[in-house]
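Hypothesis: this fold can be encoded by more than one sequence.
Test: take the structure tokens below, design a sequence, compare later.
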């Protein structure tokens, strides 16, 4: 960060102050003195889910990363509820987010680089007019082709006011608790949903493991995933940003991925992009080998251990080469593979075999590590 700090963005700062102060004073005060109806809590949780998913499924995975395609009704719903989270329009958000991926950790260019500190990555980057947070529309040349994105960009502020005040008030009058609904489903929901998204920029670049890549600060953390609709598997996400999943294992808590799959099942989404399993395993093994070989180089390990490790590494490289050749064969086979069932099946089984080989290798590597540590 440069020595001279840019000027404070007063409108944003005052807004954050008022919203967060109201959330920690007005909201509990009303709860203690008047109490909240069950309906107000239901409104809070319902709108909390919709705004959160609007950001993760819509802003992030659909528009910033194009990890799937969505039909018009779904795009409208995502644009409205994502906008309700008050994190700027899709057009601005996606432009900044793509820059974050391209220049991750770079203090000059990453809009919310964690290298400038936890607070900067969480909110600080928005309260001053940092040059890196200017939206660069050249990064999102595809988005103007989506009329929903442009409509939302144009009417963003009307949408923000109508949705954040209008929806809670309307719901409140419907159930006879307008102030309660406005405070819980409006104020508290907005403040909470903002912080939970900001955690992805701060916590998910600080606290967790890096199984897929150590080239940047992004980490995987199941606890953060619980708070962020599945976006806590951030190390995976930075390694494979075009995958519609962040929690790639079936058991990993990633509601955004389940919602996308549900939408696909309902015919509202299609062309879901997945990283081939082989590539995912290759990244993990590659990292493990790098660490183990570094350790072997430092000495202090039995020669047999080092030999076995080198054999395994050679084996790994051979498997990767075979996979690349198979990929080329698949491209060459092109349409004939679809027509010729035998070729298609043969390619598929070969890919499965290579997947299996990597899986077994990971088990052996684990045993090797245990043998050495134990
Ligand atoms: Zn990130
Ligand atoms: Zn991303």
């Amino acid at each position: 960060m440069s020595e001279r700090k840019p000027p404070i963005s007063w409108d944003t700062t005052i807004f954050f102050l008022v919203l967060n102060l109201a959330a920690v004073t007005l909201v509990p005060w009303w709860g203690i003195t008047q109490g909240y109806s069950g309906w107000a809590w239901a409104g809070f949780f319902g709108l909390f889910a919709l705004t959160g998913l609007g950001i993760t499924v819509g802003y992030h995975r659909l528009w910033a990363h194009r990890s799937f395609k969505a039909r018009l009704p779904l795009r409208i719903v995502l644009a409205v509820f994502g906008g309700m989270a008050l994190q700027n329009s899709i057009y601005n958000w996606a432009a900044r987010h793509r820059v974050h991926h391209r220049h991750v950790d770079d203090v000059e260019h990453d809009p919310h680089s964690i290298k400038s500190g936890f607070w900067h990555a969480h909110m600080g980057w928005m309260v001053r007019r940092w040059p890196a947070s200017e939206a660069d529309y050249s990064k999102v040349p595809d988005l103007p082709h989506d009329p929903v994105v442009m409509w939302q960009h144009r009417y963003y502020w009307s949408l923000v006011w109508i949705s954040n005040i209008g929806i809670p008030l309307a719901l409140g009058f419907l159930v006879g608790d307008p102030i309660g609904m406005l405070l819980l489903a409006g104020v508290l929901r907005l403040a909470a949903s903002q912080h939970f998204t900001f955690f992805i920029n701060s916590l998910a670049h600080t606290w967790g493991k890096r199984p897929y890549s150590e080239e940047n600060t992004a980490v995987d953390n199941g606890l953060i995933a619980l708070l962020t609709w599945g976006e806590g598997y951030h190390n995976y996400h930075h390694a494979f940003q075009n995958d519609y999943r962040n929690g790639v294992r079936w058991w990993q808590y990633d509601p955004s991925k389940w919602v996308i799959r549900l939408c696909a099942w309902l015919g509202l989404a299609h062309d879901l992009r997945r990283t081939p399993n082989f590539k995912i395993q290759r990244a993990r093994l590659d990292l493990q080998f790098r660490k183990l070989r570094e350790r072997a180089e430092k000495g202090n390990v039995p020669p047999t251990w080092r030999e076995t490790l080198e054999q395994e590494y050679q084996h790994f490289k051979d498997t990767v080469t075979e996979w690349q050749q198979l990929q080329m064969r698949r491209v060459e086979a092109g349409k004939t593979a679809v027509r010729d069932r035998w070729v298609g099946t043969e390619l598929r089984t070969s890919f499965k075999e290579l997947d299996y080989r990597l899986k077994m290798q990971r088990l052996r590597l684990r045993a090797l590590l245990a043998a050495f540590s134990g």
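The beta strands are 69-70, 269-270. DSSP finds 15 helices and two strands in the chain.
Hypothesis status: open.
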